[in-house]
């Protein structure tokens, strides 16, 4: 075997191998592929190293490369090589940089991947010539295992709005031959901003030998989520106000296709902090509302997120509802939110109206509410509507504007009563208005 290793430089025709890799990769991806150089490495195992690899972008999205890779390593199968064929055991892509772009009409730059302009069965790998040890006919480009190490995926939105670009960092994926034209997928990545750790297990991408585009490939996977604070991610997707913060853990079962994925699962946030700044509040004008024990069973399909049920606690009270969020096509912040089967029990309403919203006509007391609500995510306070029944009390009026108005009414009433000699209780003029129920 040592002698075979010493003979490798004479067995491998690097120019032919370079042509094989570039041509086969271009055929598989439907995009031109080029790289600066190719070299042969003997240790620790025989491998071909590629440097400066680039995969072209869809011309409709620009001229910058879709994928750039400084170094790729393709391990060779030694026994086929001794027989005059080049076969790859494993492909390792170190720190690839992939650019995802979405146009304003919703089309992605990856939609054309895998859809070669010519018939996919026409291209053939170069055949061996004489005894040169060049690649044999039909030698596969894709190895039984492809590893992506420390990759970075960036996303550029196609429509203006507060949702800025996001990226996937420290992408470590393993793609293995799953048989019947499918790939088995497993790995980890981090979603930034937000530092959300994602773990993919039992992943499978199928239908890769059917001549369809990449986004049409069937998808299945189990995904675990773990984030210390969702605030940066929520701000990137929906804008900075109101700020929503808190740790998240969850699991999702993913299906559908790469272009139209579906997901179901469970998410839990031990605490959720909603923070907003309002000129209506006395100092401090920045106020925070804390929910505890938020759990939901989300489901995503065709631009619609449902969560049935959603439960949380606030100040000893409880909240339960079914949520539906419908995203407008091609936008990320224009969403309609519906809360059905809403049930609130014993919630201290002053935590919301006084401490958080600083409403001038606020009341204090336990709130019970049943019904439904709907609002636009971009402006929830001014678009809020819905039918229902509520009861507050026993409680009292505590809003500053209401108390000021009441004080004026009481003063006028006191003056009139004095003129009329009425016998009114003194407590009416010194105490806020208390009530049994509203």
User: What's the alpha carbon Rg, rounded to whole Å?
Assistant: 32 Å
Shape: elongated
Q: Which residues sit in consecutive blocks of at least 5 with pLDDT less than 50?
A: 1-6, 117-141, 426-431
Largest sheet, described in full? 20 strands, mixed
Q: In terms of structural class, how would the helical and strand content be classed?
A: alpha+beta
Q: What is the element string, with H for helices and E for strands?
A: HHEEEEHEEEEEEEHEEEEEEEHEEHEEHE
What does this structure look like?
The N terminus is likely disordered. Helices cover 16% and strands 45% of the residues. By secondary structure, it is an alpha+beta fold. The chain has seven helices and 23 strands.
Task: Please give a handful of descriptors for the protein shown.
alpha+beta; three-stranded antiparallel β-sheet; 23 strands; 16% helix; disordered N terminus; 7 helices; 20-stranded mixed β-sheet; 438 residues
Quick summary:
A hairpin with a 7-residue loop joins strand 17 (317-327) and strand 18. It contains 7 helices and 23 strands. It has helices at residues 2-11, 14-29, 78-82, 231-238, 350-356, 380-383, 400-420; strands spanning 33-34, 37-41, 47-55, 67-76, 88-94, 97-101, 145-156, 166-179, 182-192, 196-205, 219-227, 243-245, 248-256, 261-277, 286-301, 304-314, 317-327, 335-348, 363-364, 366-376, 388-392, 395-397, 434-435.
């Amino acid at each position: 075997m040592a002698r075979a290793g010493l003979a490798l430089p004479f067995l491998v025709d690097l120019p032919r191998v370079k042509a094989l890799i570039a041509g086969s990769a271009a055929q598989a991806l439907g995009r031109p592929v080029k790289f600066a150089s190719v070299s042969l490495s003997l240790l620790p195992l025989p491998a071909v190293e590629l440097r400066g690899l680039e995969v072209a972008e869809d011309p409709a999205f620009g001229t910058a490369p879709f994928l750039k890779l400084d170094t790729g390593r393709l391990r060779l199968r030694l026994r086929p090589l001794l027989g005059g064929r080049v076969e790859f055991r494993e492909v390792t892509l170190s720190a690839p940089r992939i650019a995802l772009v979405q146009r304003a009409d919703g089309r992605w730059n990856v939609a054309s991947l895998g859809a070669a302009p010519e018939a996919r069965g026409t291209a053939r790998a170069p055949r061996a010539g004489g005894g040169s040890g060049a690649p044999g006919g039909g030698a596969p480009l894709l190895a039984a295992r492809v590893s992506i190490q420390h990759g970075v995926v960036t996303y550029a939105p196609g429509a203006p709005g507060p949702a800025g670009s996001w990226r996937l960092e420290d992408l470590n994926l393993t793609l293995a031959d799953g048989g019947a034209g499918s790939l088995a997928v497993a790995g980890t990545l981090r979603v930034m901003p937000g530092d959300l750790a994602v773990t993919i297990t039992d992943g499978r991408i199928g239908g890769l030998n059917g001549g369809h585009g990449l986004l049409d490939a069937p998808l299945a996977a189990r995904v675990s989520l773990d984030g210390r604070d969702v605030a940066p991610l929520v701000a990137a997707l929906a804008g900075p106000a109101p700020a929503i913060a808190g740790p998240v853990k969850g699991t999702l079962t993913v299906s559908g296709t790469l272009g139209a994925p579906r997901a179901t699962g469970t998410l839990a946030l031990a605490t959720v902090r909603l923070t907003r700044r309002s000129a209506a509040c006395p100092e401090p004008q920045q106020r925070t509302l804390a929910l505890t024990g938020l759990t939901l069973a989300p489901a995503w399909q065709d631009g619609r997120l449902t969560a049935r049920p959603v439960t949380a606690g606030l100040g000893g009270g409880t909240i339960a509802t079914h949520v539906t969020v419908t995203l407008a096509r091609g936008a990320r912040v224009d969403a309609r939110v519906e809360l059905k089967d809403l049930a609130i029990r014993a919630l201290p309403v002053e935590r919301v109206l006084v401490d958080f919203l600083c409403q001038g006509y606020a009341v204090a007391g336990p709130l019970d509410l049943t019904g439904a609500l709907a609002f636009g995510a971009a402006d929830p306070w001014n678009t809020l509507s819905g039918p229902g029944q509520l009861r507050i009390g026993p409680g009292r009026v505590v809003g500053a504007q209401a108390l000021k108005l009441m004080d004026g009414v009481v003063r006028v009433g006191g003056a009139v009563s004095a003129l009329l000699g009425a016998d009114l209780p003194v407590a009416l003029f010194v105490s806020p208005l208390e009530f049994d129920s509203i």
